[in-house]
Structure formats: C-alpha cells, structure tokens
Write a structure and sequence with these properties.
Elements: H1 2-5, H2 12-22, E1 26-29, H3 38-47, E2 54-57, H4 64-73, E3 78-80, E4 97-101, H5 109-122, E5 126-130, H6 136-143, H7 145-153, H8 162-170, H9 173-188, H10 192-202, E6 208-216, E7 222-230
Parallel strand pairs: 1-2, 1-4, 2-3, 4-5
Antiparallel strand pairs: 5-7, 6-7
Transmembrane segments: 169-187
Keywords: Membrane, Transmembrane, Transmembrane helix
Protein name: Class I SAM-dependent methyltransferase
Length: 233
C-alpha cells in the first residue's frame, strides 16, 4: 500500500540533497520489512537527477521472497543483504546513506539513540522517515480510508496469494490488524521535536547537520522526517 499510494514521494528531495552532501549514490535501507515504498523512492530519485541511484534492503528478519521479487522488477537496482542486519550495529561492509522507512517508531528512545549514534560513529548520512504526521486526522484516516484503500488494492498486491484474499474479504483479519497497527504506530511515533532531541543525544559533539519536520502528501497525510549528515559535508 505504501508503494501504491506513493507515500514517500514528498521526501525524495531531502534524500537527493543528502546524497549530494555525502557524495553517495547508494541507499542502505534498515528495517526494510517487505520493502514497501522502496521502488517508488528509487524511481523518484532517478527522476530527480540521480540516475545511478541504487538501494540495498536489510532487516533483522530478512524477507528473501519479497526482496527477490523487488530485485527482479527493478533489474537489480534494488538488492538485498541475505543475512540479518541489526540497525543498531550495521556491519562495516554495508556502505551507503542509511534510511529507515515506517519503522523508527518500533525503537524505544534508548534504541533510537543507539541507531542514530551508530550512523554518526560510522560517519554516514542517516534519514528517518515515518509515513504520517501524528495527529488526530491521520488517526481517523487509519480507521477509515486506510482499510477502504486496502480493500480496493489487495487484488493487485504482488506476489499474489489466494490466502490474502480469504483473510481480507471472507475473514477480514488483515484489515482489522491494519487498523490496529496503524493506530498504535501513530501513537508511538516521535514528533519532529522529539526526533531532534534524540539526534542531540546521539551526536553530543554537534558533528552532524540535522534537519527535521513534516512534508505533506498531495492526498492529505504527512511524512515526519529526520535527516542528518556530517557537518563537514
């Protein structure tokens, strides 16, 4: 759904600037899950002056089947690290501008600071993006528009599974879980001020340039973001 709705298009200019500042063409996605939205981000980056942009998907719990499908569709421009990758201690052999989409709210403050600190320690850029703005309007959308969109889009999700149809339309477990997950995720999200406070704890020496805020999507919701790169860049 994140891919179909183009949730992260508004923050692509931020990513493009971070790539320029750090001299990178490669994104290293942490906590990638099934990779939702990554194809949209790659296409938008390439359209905004980064034709050589590539992405590597990583997660503590790899999803090789979903990632193989994305890699095939993008002719290898989006690849994947097959083994588990801890976002709090990224191996040195995985370079690139680190990004995390729709997953930062899963990290309590101590772990969130550790994730940011690991990027600072490695001297690499980092971008944190949540596909919502954390306000009551979006909480309402999570319980109304989101499940309706899911009902409309489910037949087009790939790879196709008959079981997904069963548990969406006949026994609507998936829509109910989506409403619950969306509501709880919104309540757990960090505000821009909280993100900046976490960044200050991760970078007490002020070695990084940090920016945070919200970007509005054309169809209503906002994307909350934190982006940082070495000040020397």
């Amino acid at each position: 759904m994140i891919t179909a709705l183009g949730t992260y298009r508004p923050i692509v200019p931020l990513l493009a600037e971070a790539l320029r500042r750090t001299g990178q063409t490669h994104l290293l996605e942490l906590g990638a899950g099934a990779g939702g939205g990554t194809e949209t981000v790659l296409a938008a980056l390439r359209a905004q002056g980064h034709p050589a942009a590539t992405i590597t998907l990583t997660d503590l719990y790899p999803q090789p089947a979903a990632w193989a499908d994305i890699s095939r569709r993008t002719a290898g421009a989006i690849s994947a690290e097959p083994g588990p990758v801890d976002a709090l201690a990224v191996p040195e052999h995985l370079p690139g501008l680190r990004v995390i989409f729709s997953a930062f709210h899963h990290f309590p403050p101590t772990a969130a600071v550790a994730l940011l600190r690991d990027a600072v320690r490695a001297g690499t850029g980092i971008g944190v993006f949540e596909g919502a703005g954390k306000h009551w309007g979006e909480l309402l959308l999570a319980g109304t528009a989101l499940p309706v969109a899911q009902l409309l889009l489910t037949p087009f999700f790939r790879p196709f599974r008959f079981s997904r149809l069963v548990f969406t339309y006949l026994v609507p477990i998936i829509p109910l879980c989506t409403i619950w997950d969306g509501a709880v995720s919104l309540l757990r999200m960090y505000s821009p001020a909280e993100l900046l406070a976490l960044a200050s704890l991760a970078d007490p020496a002020g070695c990084y340039h940090w920016q945070t805020g919200k970007k509005s999507h054309w169809w209503g919701p906002q994307v909350t973001y934190l982006v940082g790169w070495p000040a020397a860049a």
